[in-house]
Design brief:
By secondary structure, the protein is α/β, with parallel strands linked by helices. The protein folds into 2 domains: 2-99 and 248-272, Leucine Dehydrogenase, chain A, domain 1 (Rossmann fold, 3-Layer(aba) Sandwich); 103-244, NAD(P)-binding Rossmann-like Domain (Rossmann fold), CATH 3.40.50. The protein is built from 11 helices and 12 strands. It has helices at residues 16-27, 43-49, 77-82, 101-108, 111-114, 129-140, 153-161, 176-184, 230-237, 246-261, 267-272; strands at 2-8, 31-37, 55-60, 74-75, 87-91, 94-98, 121-125, 145-150, 168-172, 188-191, 218-221, 241-243. The model has no long low-confidence stretch (mean pLDDT 94).
């Protein structure tokens, strides 16, 4: 039986098996979904033996979205810009890398904002793989004003430098006055960090604490546990639109599953498989 699955470490809390098994069941596919909890040093052997072990593809999560690239024969332009892949496909003895995180994020933006990004002020917290995917999505949709805020300025600057022709600026998390100005004028604010995550190092943290927000701001937190983080509660308190990371998670899975199987599973089928607190 052919296999798909997820590569990462740890995988104890991953929702991917539930999401993808719902799609496999929906289409009646002869596929088995596996969890591959691998160390970095085990990736080479995994990909060398993947085809022999009937692996046809899978998704990739932390900490391996960048580590896997050296084992791919080809990957698309989005992977080159983002510098990370979250899906792979094996076909004709070749391994292809894809990034659907940016697709998932793009689809999770409300139409009222998505269709007007060129006129909006966007703020992104973080500089990891998820932040890179978010900036890619905003860039593709012609966002003209993006501020990347991160604890390490150089990492934020590294992202901005890949899009030198666009209006992307970088700020250090300690630049309080500049951050205050950007957040006060922001139409879309995105948290790509683990701050506020129930199982993370700072579950009660809120990157917006003490800042004034627009009443029509949209806030998207890629964290989905808890459903409403301190970040999103803050957005709601100012009358804004608060969106957690569940939709992005499902949309990126939907896109990746279609790449591997050719089947476009309905969003609601995948979402109904999740039992979230």
């Amino acid at each position: 039986m052919n296999k798909i699955g997820i590569i990462g470490n740890p995988l104890s809390h991953t929702l991917s098996p539930d999401i993808h098994n719902s799609a496999i069941k929906h289409f009646g596919l002869d596929l088995f979904f596996k969890k591959w909890e691998l160390e970095k040093k085990e990736l080479k052997e995994f990909f060398l033996n993947a085809k022999e072990n009937n692996v046809i593809g899978g998704c990739i999560t932390v900490p391996h979205k960048e580590n896997v690239l050296k084992y791919f024969d080809f990957y698309d332009d989005s992977v080159k810009r983002i510098g990370a892949a979250n899906w792979f496909k094996i076909e004709d003895d070749k391994i292809f890398g894809f990034n659907t995180d940016y697709i998932g994020f793009k689809k999770s933006i409300p139409d009222s904002k998505l269709n007007n990004l060129s006129q909006l002020n966007c703020v992104v917290f973080g500089s990891g793989g998820s932040a890179k995917a978010v900036v890619e999505a905003l860039f593709i949709k012609n966002a003209q004003n993006i501020s990347i805020i991160n604890r390490t300025f150089l990492k934020a600057e590294e992202i901005a430098s890949k899009y030198s022709s666009s209006g992307i600026t970088s700020l250090n998390l300690n630049s309080i006055d500049s951050i205050r100005h950007e957040i006060k004028n922001a139409d879309l604010i995105v948290n790509t960090t683990s701050v506020g995550m129930s199982s993370g190092p700072d579950p009660d943290g809120n990157l917006l604490k003490g800042y004034e927000l627009k009443s029509n701001v949209t806030g998207i937190d890629l964290v989905y546990s808890p459903k409403k983080t301190p970040f999103l509660k803050n957005i709601s308190e100012f009358g804004g639109q608060a969106i957690n990371g569940i939709d992005m998670l499902i949309y990126q899975a939907q896109a990746g599953f279609e790449i591997i199987t050719g089947k476009n599973c309905p969003f609601e089928i995948m979402k109904s498989a999740l039992k979230l607190n």
